[in-house]
């Protein structure tokens, strides 16, 4: 959406503006992504305006999360992944995603998706991942963006992916243990670097990073998922990798970073709009389980 002024609800306009201050929509990769206001629900005029406006954060807007939202009665869901990705030719109850959208619209709950704007932003999800595996910028001699986003005033240095150079090379297993602790995971999937090679350079991409990381000359790839052939190609090049399933490289960012930042921005609007409360979904989960 090009301008928040066309949004009818003042509360929705405030939340969208706050999200865009943190993660400008111009940073998103519009060649394939579908970010922005995906559902503008009509206000429920039959209900009193709440004293506290809730904003629900989730990675995926599943049926379970939609039901959670209907119970919590937030004004807006900020869903990292866009629930509407390809053009819709109809909206029916036969499709669970469309059913969720219809129910949310009926309940007056709007949906906004920032997705790759969060990936590209300075201090966004990729910087969060970089901090997690390196131990923080104090442990690094350099950090660069892989694919820079240019011509966005005020966002110089933003872009997709990160390459971190450590001050001191680290054992592969040390970094594996660090990732597991940082992301709260019992298991991750790995491809060991050859000959117990120590790791100095790490390429990082939240979610599915195979195509971005394909030809980068580093010691280690850290991403959510690689395809079979992408993993084989990394092994053939002598590059180690740590993968954690797609959304496990994203979900903790909502709790650790985005909730606090969005709460702080919305505090500035409290006098005009009433109080805002940002909550993280308890029903948003990775679809995979390891047994």
Could you provide a short overview of the structure?
The chain contains 10 helices and 11 strands. It has 291 residues and is α/β, with parallel strands linked by helices. The protein has 2 domains: 4-118 and 252-279, 3-Layer(aba) Sandwich (Udp-n-acetylmuramoylalanyl-d-glutamate--2,6- Diaminopimelate Ligase, Chain: A, domain 1), CATH 3.40.1390.30; 121-244, NIF3 (NGG1p interacting factor 3)-like (Udp-n-acetylmuramoylalanyl-d-glutamate--2,6- Diaminopimelate Ligase, Chain: A, domain 1), CATH 3.40.1390.30.
CATH architecture call of the largest domain? 3-Layer(aba) Sandwich
Report the sheet with the most strands, covering strand number, pairing sense and barrel closure.
6 strands, mixed
Structural class of the secondary elements? Answer: alpha/beta
- The proportion of strand residues reads 15-25%
Poorly predicted ranges:
none
The CATH topology assignment of the largest domain is Udp-n-acetylmuramoylalanyl-d-glutamate--2,6- Diaminopimelate Ligase, Chain: A, domain 1
Enumerate the strands of the largest sheet in spatial order, edge to edge or round the barrel.
5-6-8-9-10-7
CATH superfamily of the largest domain: NIF3 (NGG1p interacting factor 3)-like
Helix percentage = 25-40%
User: Total strand count, please?
Assistant: 11
Distance between the termini: 43 Å
Order of helices and strands: HEEHEHEHHEEHEEHEHEHHE
CATH class of the largest domain: Alpha Beta
Shape: elongated
* Rg from alpha-carbon coordinates: 20 Å
Give the tally of structural domains.
2
Mean residue pLDDT: 93
């Amino acid at each position: 959406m090009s301008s928040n002024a066309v949004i009818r609800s003042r509360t929705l306009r405030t939340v969208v503006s706050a999200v865009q201050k943190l993660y400008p929509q111009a940073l998103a990769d519009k060649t394939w992504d579908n970010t922005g206001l995906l559902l503008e629900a009509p206000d429920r005029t039959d209900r009193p305006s709440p004293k506290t406006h809730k904003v629900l954060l989730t990675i995926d807007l599943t049926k379970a999360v939609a039901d959670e939202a209907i119970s919590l009665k937030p004004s807006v869901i900020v869903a990292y992944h866009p629930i509407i990705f390809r053009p819709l030719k109809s909206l029916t109850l036969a499709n669970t995603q469309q059913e969720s959208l219809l129910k949310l619209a009926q309940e007056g709950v709007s949906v906004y998706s920032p997705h790759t704007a969060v990936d590209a932003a300075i201090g966004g999800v990729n910087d969060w991942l970089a901090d997690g595996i390196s131990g923080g910028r104090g442990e690094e001699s350099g950090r660069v963006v892989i694919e820079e986003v240019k011509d966005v005033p005020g966002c110089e240095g933003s872009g997709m992916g990160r390459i971190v150079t450590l001050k001191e090379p680290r054992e592969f297993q040390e970094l594996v243990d660090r990732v597991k602790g940082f992301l709260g995971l019992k298991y991750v999937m790995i491809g060991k670097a050859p000959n117990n090679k120590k790791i100095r350079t790490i390429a990082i991409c939240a979610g599915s990073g195979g195509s971005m990381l394909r030809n980068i000359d580093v010691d280690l790839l850290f991403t959510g998922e690689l395809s079979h052939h992408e993993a084989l190609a990394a092994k053939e090049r002598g590059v180690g990798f740590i993968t954690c399933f797609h959304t496990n490289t994203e979900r903790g960012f909502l709790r650790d970073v985005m909730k606090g930042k969005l709460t702080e921005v919305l505090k500035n609007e409290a006098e005009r709009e009433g109080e805002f409360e940002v909550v993280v979904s308890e029903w948003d989960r990775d679809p995979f389980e390891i047994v």
